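Sequence in, structure out. Go.
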Amino acid sequence: MPARERKIYVIEKTAARSKPRRITDYCAALVFYFQHILKFLFSGKMIATVIGNLDPWYLLGPWYLWKNRKESKKLKASLIVISIFFLYGILQLIVFPNMSILKLAVTLLKLAVCILCMLYVMENAEKINFLRIAKIISVFYGITLPFALFFNQSPLFWITNDYVNKYTTTRLRLFYYEPSELGFRLIIVMVVLIGFFLASKCKKEKVLLAVLILVDAFTLYLARSMGAIGIGALAIGVMFLYDWIAHNSRKKTVIYSCICAALLLFCVMMAVTQSDLYMRLMDTLQGKDSSNRYRIGLSFRILGDSFWNYWGLGCGFGNVNTPAFLNQYTDWGLKTVITNSYVYYMTETGIFGVLTLGGFISILFYRCVKGKSAVKWGLFVFIVVFQFMGGYLTNGLNWVAYGIILSNFNERNYYKSIELKSLQTETHADQTNLSQKKSRYLSLREKILGSPFLNVLFQPVIFLRRAARWLRGVVQYEIWFRIKAFFRKLRLGTSYQKYEPMKLYQNRHKGQRCFIVATGPSQSIEDINKLKGEITFSVNSIYTCFSDTDWRPTYYCVQDRVVYEKNCKGIDELKAAQRFISDSIPQAYRKGDILYPTNERFHHCFNGYKFRIRFSDDSSKVVFAANTIVYSAIQLAVYMGFSEIYLTGCDCNYTSPKKHFNHDTNEKIESKIKLDEIGNLMLASYRAAKKYTDTHPVKIYNATRGGKLEIFPRVNLDDVVS
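Output:
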């Protein structure tokens, strides 16, 4: 094992062992695996009754009350939430006195216990070792699977006469009530394992997790749970999409593209061979599958009809499963009960159920956005969609998942010390080796693009890479950015408050002039000293000249992650009248700073000079980044109302040996092609600014001494300041 890989593995093992090996982890795994073991003691309808009402996860509810018996605020808040449901149940009882009081009381009590269970997980999620529990459960499945395959006709492990699935009458269920319950639990375990697989940076750990995921996937295939497979695939796809957007890299893009191609090939093979899963999917899409037709079509029809029959109040908590209600819809084909969890709940509670369920799902979605966790996104998509298709509302495992989503859990915190420690212990030899590898890569890239034959040969690869960058730009910086802006506009949550101070600067300097002091090599201390008394913007590493002058900028801007990481100490100590910090580097934000929303599509996702770069005159909504912080500073200046903007130190010349004035920096190794792309993108952004100023009462002048920027009219700095 290489030294760096061994180092990361040791750190990850240390992080894993930082959570104690408690017996409760094994108990939780045993409960998860043997939850339906009581099915062997009962028969007929009693099985569903016992399993539904004796859920071992309910024990977390009373335990939450016991642990917080001295925390009056927590108990009061939880009781207020629970009392809302009890009061609505009493209202239903007053309006419909013929409903079953026993079923109403039992359902309300189970719902109260589920809420307390969710609160317990929400409060203790960071103390629970979900990874170890998921590993233990997967090992249980791996141990049991050979026995199930050997005894392939045993009712202990299999359902051998499944009348619902006509293509596969023999389905694996292990110790669960039915195969769909096994599929439901397998997807939850797989979501947790895949989330940690994406977060881990140790190859050995990734191999172990991959093996456990494959064991679970094979078990799921034997269960033939169509709903779990379909919805689980959607949830896992969302996890990979989120990971690609949040932690994108060239290597990850290639790997995910290959995975998508392999899955597409697998789907084609299933269609060609007409496997049982494919045939049942076709039956579902054509409305021929009796199970899905009953679960989806009939349930929603009954919901709409009962909504009017009960005046929008619902038939009462727990009263869907009563002879009085079932007899109303026997002619419709209702045999036992509505099998959709959320539809069942809305049928019982009417408008109240629609509002509470919609609000609860919105809160879950917000916590996923806020939590930045692939596991949370996977659980959210799977649980919510699955409950619309089937399941049980008061299933304790659902509420455990809700608690995880609402908590501060993040799988990347499990290995939170990896990146820091690996960076701290990285030697100079490692850095030299990395630089040599990058130099060889850039040299090879130039040879490929310089050779006509190789250039044509690699065109498909280049096209796929550009397509991936374009797709990332659309998803992350168009769709996702607009969703966040919509939440800010509605003033939802607390994050919008950080952007509110930006609005105070709109037209603050209307009709005045300002100078944007860049850090190009043409900049000089003599020119900077001439700007004393003027309103000035400056950027990035300008602080390096403060030891040579007593001039300080009026406003300071920074938005590039790499720049901040290299200069974080000097930037954090910088004293200016006001600092403007991009939300792309939230770690730079300090109390008193102004945060502005940045759209980095043209900076990260493709060669923006080939496309139409946008310009924003409302920095409280968006500032478009384009490979130069000066472009963002121009947008901020326009937002503040300046009518004349003078640029100094904007050389726009990345081909010269010296990139900045007054200090030496460890520049990244860039090829000539990359430098040309940067220069073209910078010039394209300035053209966008020029196009805006041509139609608005704002003028931009270039007061730089030399350089390649010829888009704006040139002026002599001495004449302007005199």
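Check: DSSP finds 28 helices and eleven strands in the chain. The chain has two domains: 3-248+289-415, 488-721.
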